[in-house]
């Protein structure tokens, strides 16, 4: 009887250890730090020429728990007007990783995250979320699905952004394209 109890206790410990290791090894793959190579590339760009990032929306933190949609030229202005004490690289790192608020005058659009999109993001792994809202085009690019409601697009693009995907809008054909941030520095390597 004593031996059976010892075996049972040992089995429970092994199973417990296995579960701890299993859950510790599971990664969410959501919302990692914004791609440092892209931040460095933006910070090193000359302001004398148009940036390849000028038409790409970036996101930061607004006050009142809102998210801010901002473009590079406005990030530069916010840096100059509000965060002169930081060099531009530090400012980009802090703002794009949402460590500082970037709402400033008319330079940024603050919005609340759509609750239904947020629920789908939180209840799925990132790649399931990505597949819910994107489709491959004939040219093998990733694009947002056309049936996404207008009031949900910013939230979808925000969640793509925090997972190191950038979105651009082709206003000629009315389509949002989605690219991994690594695409932006692999072009120049």
Comma- or semicolon-separated keywords:
189 residues; alpha+beta; 4-stranded antiparallel β-sheet; 7 strands; 15% strand
What would a concise description of this structure say?
With 189 residues, this protein is α+β, with helices and mostly antiparallel strands.
Model description:
The termini are far apart. A hairpin with a 5-residue loop joins β4 (134-136) and β5 (142-144). The chain has a four-stranded antiparallel sheet. The chain has 189 residues and is of the alpha+beta class. The protein contains eight helices and seven strands. 46% of the residues lie in helices and 15% in strands. The chain has helices at residues 2-25, 36-44, 72-82, 88-96, 115-123, 126-133, 150-161, 182-186, and strands at 58-61, 67-70, 109-111, 134-136, 142-144, 165-170, 175-180.
């Amino acid at each position: 009887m004593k031996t059976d109890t010892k075996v049972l206790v040992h089995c429970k410990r092994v199973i417990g250890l296995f579960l701890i290791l299993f859950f510790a090894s599971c990664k969410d793959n959501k919302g990692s730090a914004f791609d440092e190579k892209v931040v460095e590339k933006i910070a090193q760009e000359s302001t004398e020429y148009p940036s390849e990032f000028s038409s790409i929306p970036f996101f930061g933190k607004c006050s009142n728990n809102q998210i801010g949609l901002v473009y590079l030229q406005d990030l530069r202005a916010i840096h100059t007007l509000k965060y002169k004490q930081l060099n531009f690289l530090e400012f980009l790192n802090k703002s794009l990783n949402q460590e500082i608020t970037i709402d400033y005058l008319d330079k940024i659009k603050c919005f609340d995250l759509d609750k239904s999109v947020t629920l789908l993001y939180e209840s799925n792994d990132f790649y399931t979320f990505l597949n819910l809202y994107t489709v491959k085009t004939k040219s093998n690019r990733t694009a947002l699905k056309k049936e996404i409601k207008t009031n949900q697009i910013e939230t979808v693009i925000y969640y793509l952004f925090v997972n190191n995907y950038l979105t651009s809008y082709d206003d000629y054909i009315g389509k949002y394209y989605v690219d991994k941030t690594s695409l932006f520095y692999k072009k120049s390597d």
